[in-house]
Amino acid sequence: MKRKEQKYKNENGNILLLILVLGAVAFGVVTLYPKFMATKVAEPEKEVMLGANFDTPAVEIKITAGGYEPAVVTIKKGARVTWVNTDKVPHSLSSVENFGSNRIDIEMDELLEAEDSLEVPFEQMGTFKYEDKDDTGKYQGVIVVE
Description:
Layout: H1 2-36, E1 59-64, E2 67-69, E3 72-75, E4 80-85, E5 91-95, E6 110-112, E7 117-121, E8 126-131, E9 140-145
Parallel strand pairs: 1-4, 3-9
Antiparallel strand pairs: 1-2, 4-7, 5-6, 5-8, 8-9
């Protein structure tokens, strides 16, 4: 009879040990899984702009078949301006040279295809003039930064 009791004690001890090990593994998986193995959702790439004031709302200027809408914008220092080409053809966006010392921080020949956009922060006060160099008669705009 003593051997039978010994056998049951060993089986109960093994079962208890198995339960403890499985519990520890389950705890580890639940605790560590979100930190190290979480599935990441692909996010679109974002351009980081240093110095931009993201508390100030961005102003949107549409590039249409008729020109820039609105053509003249007044914003606060630190605000962002986003140009969106809603026309069906590409347009260049160029800072006008020799317009005082104020130049928009964009490439000289920034080409925006249809539905493309460009966002620029304005950290300096002043008046900034820009145009589509291919059609300066219709596409001219001014940004006043206060």
